[in-house]
Design a protein that fits this description.
This protein is mostly helical. The chain contains nine helices and no strands. It is globular.
Length: about 200
């Protein structure tokens, strides 16, 4: 039963996840964390924040990475203890989130190529662009929470400074984002583990 619920949730996410992975985050959170009151899934706000962080740091699109991770974790939370159930969940969720966009893009690329001069197509695409920006902004606001920035004044101060510094370094210097991620991880390790803030 848990697999059918996961398939249904990720088919919806894949079908309506316009704008890519970051735009999908609020939809993923709504489906997976809130998930219609299914407590057996065991994904709360803290775990979801960790999943997002891991999905951002691993290669590949964030939507697919999070689907693979959640598909692995949820069967175990639902009482299916074998790792094979988790692997099956990963495959099922990954296929469910990829299938709708694959079919839509396959059809739409052919359709848009044939009708790219149509005023209707141009109007639809013009209407979708600001929606995608809004969805990405919604994802940014979704991630500005206590799980990411901490709850104590010291944690909040360090997190906000790291956030601003990372943005400034990536935006205004030629330093590669991988170096920024590595440096932020080292600073976080020193600050939170060694110093103990």
């Amino acid at each position: 039963m848990v697999y059918l619920q996961l398939i249904w949730s990720y088919l919806k996410i894949g079908l309506f996840g316009f704008g890519g992975g970051y735009a999908m985050l609020s939809l993923i959170e709504n489906e997976i964390v809130k998930h219609g009151g299914i407590p057996a899934w065991g994904i709360d706000g803290q775990i979801f924040t960790d999943i997002v962080a891991i999905s951002q740091m691993t290669p590949g699109p964030i939507g697919i990475n999070s689907a693979t991770y959640i598909g692995y974790v949820v069967p175990g939370n639902a009482g299916l203890d074998s790792p094979w159930w988790g692997i099956l969940g990963s495959v099922v969720c990954t296929l469910a989130v990829v299938l709708p966009p694959f079919l839509l893009v396959s059809y739409m690329s052919h359709f848009i190529r044939r009708h790219h001069d149509s005023a209707i197509i141009k109007g639809v695409l013009s209407g979708l662009r600001p929606v995608v920006v809004g969805l990405i902004a919604s994802a940014a606001l979704l991630l500005m929470n206590g799980q990411n920035f901490g709850t104590t004044p010291q944690e909040l101060t360090v997190s906000v400074l790291l956030c601003i510094a990372s943005f400034a370094v990536v935006k205004f210097t030629g330093i590669h984002p991988i170096s920024v991620i590595t440096g932020a991880g080292a600073i976080g390790f020193i600050t939170y583990y060694l110093i103990g803030i």
